[in-house]
Specification:
It is a single chain. The protein is α/β, with parallel strands linked by helices. It folds into two domains: 89 residues, 2-Layer Sandwich (Alpha-Beta Plaits), CATH 3.30.70.100; 126 residues, Oxidized Rhodanese, domain 1. Helices cover 27% and strands 25% of the residues. The chain has a five-stranded mixed β-sheet, with helices on one face. It has a four-stranded parallel β-sheet with strand order 6-10-9-7. A two-stranded antiparallel ribbon has the order 8-11. A hairpin with a 2-residue loop joins strand 2 and strand 3. The protein is globular.
Length: 246
């Protein structure tokens, strides 16, 4: 019986000195292990969505941590598919893992993490403003009931949304979510730099929620867009029919 392909996603904001020097070796090891997907390096950390055999991924992540001098990575989010969802292996070096276009340093301060099991209780509170930090087309495919769609095409437009719809009242209670959590790290850091103190984000993102929360208890509506050939995932992180809109 053919083994399913594992798709693993992870990130960590941690200082990396001269990330470009690591690119050649890390790409070579990806190819050698039959791993595809994208690994992004920046001086502020690492972000990845990789696919391959489970043992090969485990070996590669151990090598990655050793080469970058990272003691630990947050728990990876794994899903499974019958065919490779990526066409090739890529290692990118960027100035930032993800840019919001304004000062925001998750290594200094981020919002409070909320476990998937506590998320429903938070976002159904009448005093909580729930914000989807993804782009408009992702929101259209699926979102949490009652969430605000900022209507962005790129992440940097969250700054204009904040200026127009959240400021100047920094006493608001904000709950935010994104696919795997990395956008919320930056956006929550940005909000806290503006003086917001009641800032929360879904730990592990939508992927963790869909993995851990049963459909009958879920406040998620639709499917979760992912940046690979599967296009969208549903509860249990199963591939969803393409074109399903919330």
């Amino acid at each position: 019986m053919e083994m399913p392909i594992t798709v693993t996603t992870f990130y960590r904001f941690v200082p990396i000195a001269n990330p470009a020097q690591h690119k050649p070796a890390l790409l070579e090891h990806m190819v050698a292990r039959g791993i595809r997907g994208t690994l992004t390096l920046a001086s502020e950390g690492v972000n990845a969505t990789l696919s391959g055999e489970a043992a090969a991924l485990e070996d590669y992540i151990a090598l990655l941590k050793a080469q970058l001098g990272i003691a630990a990575l947050p728990m990876a989010r794994d899903s499974y598919t019958g065919a490779q969802p990526f066409k090739r292996a890529k290692v990118k070096v960027k100035r930032e893992l993800i840019s919001i276009g304004a000062p925001a340093d998750p290594s200094i301060c981020v919002g409070a993490y909320v476990a998937p099991q506590a998320w429903n209780a938070l976002i159904t509170r009448p005093d909580v403003i729930t914000i989807d930090t993804r782009n408009d087309y992702e929101f259209a495919m699926g979102h949490f009931a009652g969430a605000i769609n900022p209507g962005t095409r790129i992440f940097k437009q969250m700054v204009a949304f904040t200026q127009a719809h959240l400021l100047p009242d920094t006493s608001k209670t904000i709950a935010m979510y994104c696919t795997g959590g990395i956008r919320c790290e930056k956006y929550s850091a940005y909000l806290m730099s503006l003086g917001f103190t009641q800032v929360y984000h879904l730990q592990g993102g939508i992927l963790a929620y869909l993995e851990q929360i049963p459909p009958q208890e879920s406040l998620w509506r639709g499917d979760c867009f992912v940046f690979d050939e599967r296009v969208a995932l549903g509860h249990g992180l199963a591939p969803a029919p393409v074109g399903c809109m919330a």
